[in-house]
Design brief:
4 helices, single chain, mainly alpha
């Protein structure tokens, strides 16, 4: 079963909860939020602002840290 089919077949409460989580995870970050996240990981202010500005031009759904 595909993920979308499973979501459609789920009970209404489960479907609502899953959609709420997806909405939270996929909410777009502002340029300031992106720059802050970069700064928290040791990126310099100017580079963080440039990277954030560039990323705001893309439709990215999810970004995750690489596993070591």
């Amino acid at each position: 079963m595909k993920a979308l089919d499973a979501l459609k077949a789920a009970p209404p409460e489960m479907r609502a909860a899953a959609l709420a989580v997806l909405d939270q995870v996929s909410a777009p970050l502002t340029e300031r939020q992106l720059a802050s996240a970069f700064r928290a990981h040791g990126i310099g202010l100017l580079a963080a602002k440039r990277m954030a500005r560039a990323l705001c031009k893309l439709d990215i759904i999810a970004v995750a840290r690489r596993s070591p």
